[in-house]
């Protein structure tokens, strides 16, 4: 096959991943006539752009479900996220050590924490840049930032360095974000590294809350999943469909509908 320009080659990679369902580095290298290292650089670029998801077996297309950036998600369901964040902040006790997952709703929770003068002596651990920024000037809050590889789309740190840090900590409460959440499958994300980190975070917490507005319930936009622990709480907003909520209750999940705040 004739050599492609970098842009044309990446377009072809997305097309092949879409038509085959799953493409490996070796398959793409043979098909496009370039080295495996070139393909890996292409895949890193396409993954960062949200056009592909890396898997242990290769890559798969996200053409039908592109991952939204954190900037895009900040403009979605603003009132619902505010209500969820306010309820979550009320569960936190002074002196606790809590974990804030990355995401727009957990970012809203960071804002709610800073606005609550009653919360003192907190230790907040987070991998999310938005939460770090919100908490950075808060008196009486000790912020621990998880390092690792930055995912530009989610503005979050992932990878073995973040995982190693989590394994050295424990939390009174973990507040998790999600691209979507399913009653049986768990938390859905665009990237397997995200799901691995979420599972470790939840394994280190006494109380686990998944913060997800109504539009995220029961959806399966990607193929990477975080397996849920035996006990956890779903926190959503008052526009959630009763049938969707019942599916979680049927799977022994505690469901909280955050009250609407004017």
Automatic annotation (TrEMBL):
Domain HTH deoR-type: 6-61
PROSITE patterns, per database record: HTH_DEOR_2
A Pfam family assignment: DeoRC
Keyword Transcription among record annotations: yes
Residue ranges that the Swiss-Prot or TrEMBL entry lists as coiled coil: none
GO function term, MF aspect, one: DNA-binding transcription factor activity
Hydrolase as UniProt keyword: no
Signal peptide: none
The entry's keywords: Transcription, Transcription regulation
Protein name: DeoR family transcriptional regulator
Native source organism of the sequence: Humibacillus xanthopallidus
